[in-house]
Amino acid sequence: MVRTFEELVAEAEAAPVEGWGFDWLRGRATEERPSWGYARLVGDRMAAVEAALDIDTGGGEVLAEVPVPPPLLVATEAWPPNVPVARRNLRPLGATVVRVGDRPPLPFRDATFDLVVSRHPVHTWWDEVARVLRPGGAYLSQQIGPGTVRELSEAILGPLPPPEHRHPGVAVADARAAGLTVVDLREATLRTVFHDIGAVVWFLRKVVWTVPGFTVGRYRDELRRLDERIRAEGPFVAYARRFLIEARRG
C-alpha cells in the first residue's frame, strides 16, 4: 500500500530524535561510510592509552563500540536530551558522562588525557583540546566537511552561497595555531540516499544545521514538492562531506 505524504510526515514528526543513532532510517535512507573506519580507529587508540575523552558524544553510540576502554574514560555532551541516553549507553564501559555548555572551557585540568576524540563535533575548540592533552597525546576526529548534503538544503531553501565553514584547511591551520602537529588528514564525499519524505523529515529534525530552524509547518510546501519529486523520479540523492584529522601535542 502506498503511503500518503501526510502519513509519512506525521510518522517522522512523532519519532524520537534523541541520541545520535540513525536506526530509524534503516530501509528508508542510506549513507556511504568513509573508508578509514572511524569507530575502528577509535577502538584501536583507546586500547593503548590510560585516559581518554570523547567530546560531543551524542548518545554515546560510537564510543559504546570501543572493545577495550581505558582505565579513565570521560565523555562530554552539551544537548540535555542526549545526556541520559549517553549515560545509559556508556555505563557498561565504566565511562563518566559530563554535561557541558556549548562554549569553553572544558571542565578538566590541564594535561589530563592521552587521547581526545570527537565524531562530528559542533565546534572544535582547539586551544582547549591542546590544553587537556598530555604531552605526546593525540586528538582524533571525524568532522563534517563544507557543504555536506547541500543538495538537500537547497531542495528546501533554494540556491545557497558557497559554503564558508568546516573546511579541512581551516581545521589544520587552527590546530597548528593551538600548538598541535597535524599527522593525518583525509577527505571523503559520500553518497546519501533518501527513499521517502518521512526519511527527509526525520533527518532534518535530527541534523538541525541542514536546514536551520526547520519545522514541518514552516516548510510544508517545499516538503510536498520534494515528496512529489521522489514519487516521480525515485530516491533523492545528496552527498555528505567528511574529513578525518589527527593532531598531536608535542
From TrEMBL:
InterPro entries, A to Z: 23S_rRNA_MeTrnsfrase_RlmA, Methyltransf_11, SAM-dependent_MTases_sf
A GO molecular-function annotation: S-adenosylmethionine-dependent methyltransferase activity
GO BP field: methylation
Keywords of the record: Methyltransferase, Transferase
KW Ribonucleoprotein (keyword) present: no
Source organism, top-level taxon: Bacteria
Record-linked Pfam families: Methyltransf_11
Domain Methyltransferase type stretches: 53-139
Name of protein: Class I SAM-dependent methyltransferase
